[in-house]
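Lab meeting notes turned into a lecture example. A postdoc, R.K., suggested we walk through two folding results consecutively so the class can see how the record format repeats. The first protein's sequence and structure tokens come next.
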Amino acid sequence: MNPASAAPGALFLDAEGLYRELLHGVQRLLQPDTQLVGITSGGAWLAERLQKDLGRPGEAGVISSAMHRDDYARRGLSATAQTRLDFDVNGARILLLDDVLYTGRTIRAVLNELFDYGRPAHVALAVLVDRGGRELPVQADYAAARVSLPASQSLALARDAGGLFTFAVETAS
């Protein structure tokens, strides 16, 4: 089954199928010293699961965009996990993981946060879904799927108690 298939007028994304695609893509991007870092919250879930599925030691890093968002005054500080990087960022090879790449503004904020911790040697980006709509010149090194959605819709990754992923398409009110 195609991980991204649509009936007329509806979009269905098989998040578990896309996760398997992401796992294969990440394996090609990794070097032995690469650190996995997930963007809160969906990217952190992905990084945590990838760390285990790839048999990598330790825990994946978590990074938040909250303090560097250009809409901070409007959104405020979110209640999601805060940045946790249990390695020296200086000179590190980092693979950022996120669930959905859209405008590029979250990635810009995350890069600012990352550089608050040091100067990495290399940063790559892998995402579950690239939905287009970029407002900044940001591109994923790997995307498990590329879809088009109107600006009035968003993709929300969810994780159940067993750690399995699902996607929902939500319409803004």
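The second example is placed directly after the first for contrast:
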Amino acid sequence: MTSLPRRSAPAPPLVVGFAVVAVVVQLLALYWPVVTVEGPVSWTDKVVHLLVFAVPTYAVGRALGSVRTVVLVFAVHAPVSELVQHFLLPGRTGDVWDAVLDLVGVTLGAAALVVRARLRRC
């Protein structure tokens, strides 16, 4: 992992706003008591899990300017969210494969941050 180039100024409000919205959507998707995800194919729920971690990882990483911090936070949050769903939320169940896809989402979000940082240096 690498840190993104340090900014001398805080992140622009639009970047911070996007990060806040991404985290709020993530929290709602993960902790809403009953969620029914229906789609044309049976793996729609898995795609949602991937995106619900990839987008906030990227957005918060941009706002904070740190890949390591954001990966650590979201990588811990992935399995914890599945445990909370399984043990504390009625009508929800935890799934190991959801946690795996959550971690893949964290990886993709972090990779996008690193690629963006390297492209900006060129």
